[in-house]
Amino acid sequence: MDQQTTQQRHLALDGAINLRDLGGYVGRDGRTVQWGKIYRSGHMAKMSAAGQQQLLALGITEIHDFRRPEERQRAPTPVVGPRIVDGYDMSIGSVSKFWDYLFAGGMSDQRAFDLVLNSYRSCAAEVVPGYRQLFSHLLRDDCGATLFHCAAGKDRTGMAAALILTALGVDREAIIEDYMLTAKYFDSAVLMGLIEEHLLNAGAKEWQRSWLEPYCGVYPEYLLGFFESVDELSGNIDDYLEQQLGIGAAEREVLAARYLQG
Q: What family name appears in the similarity comment (predicted)?
């Protein structure tokens, strides 16, 4: 991906977090994903009035919020206009093991990384209801420009983007490249601060920031771990899309007609 395309992909709206356009990737039959159709981001609670107006100017008709209720309560979406779809209540793995190791004095850099990686490696079945719902929206005849997001726009959002791009025929290398753009456009220090606040509130006395970094960043191994989880559940990504998410050959034709050009 060239620098100009990368810059076009990122939308630096005032207060937006990791907001990106999925357009421009080469998909099925050499056609490209249309710009201005599907967007991904982190939460929008900090968007200014000007940023919200910029967002509305993109023509987005629906915002799909993957976050859990407590996340939405802490950082509500202020944007008025698009329909907010927030019944996903998705989570990837559990942080309980992190707390167990932390309070038992058994945490390490590698263990923290492995905990996040294992969450990706074991979530293919867990995310099916949410992603099936998202795809059903993308297939609707009245579907306009769509934005989907979680908190940071990296884990739940990153896997959703990977599945959409896969369904559109984008190759795995480009999909991983898209996933890794979060390292460029997301300020992980913000998430680090939130995690440290939670640690203090939970009574933690001591930790190393390097233990938190795996929870704040993105690594190719994470997304590859998700694809491993998909293969373990369904055999391969195509069967996962069809059997678990309801995206077979006919549905992929509809998606291609709607979101590819050229």
A: Belongs to the protein-tyrosine phosphatase family.
3-state secondary structure the chain: CCHHHHHHHECCCCCCCCCEECCCCECHHHCEECCCCEEEECCCCCCCHHHHHHHHCCCEEEEEECCCHHHHHHCCCCCCCCEEECCCCCCCCCCHHHHHHHHHCCCCHHHHHHHHHHHHHCCCCCCHHHHHHHHHHHCCCCCCEEEEECCCCCCHHHHHHHHHHHHCCCCHHHHHHHHHCHHHHCCHHHHHHHHHHHHHHCCCCCCCHHHHHHHHCCCHHHHHHHHHHHHHHHCCHHHHHHHHCCCCHHHHHHHHHHHEEC
The Cα–Cα gap between 180 and 86 comes to 26
Of 8, 20, 60, nearest to 178 by C-alpha is: 20
What's the CATH code, domain 3-261? 3.90.190.10
Which portions of the chain are predicted below pLDDT 50? none
pLDDT value at position 95? 66
Longest dimension (CA), the chain: 57
Contact 92, 115 (CB under 8 A): no
Domain residue ranges of the chain, discontinuous segments joined by +: 3-261
Enter the pTM of the model. 0.94
Which tens digit of pLDDT belongs to each residue from 136-154?
999 998 888 999 999 999 9
Q: Which residues make beta-bridge pairs with 33? A: 260
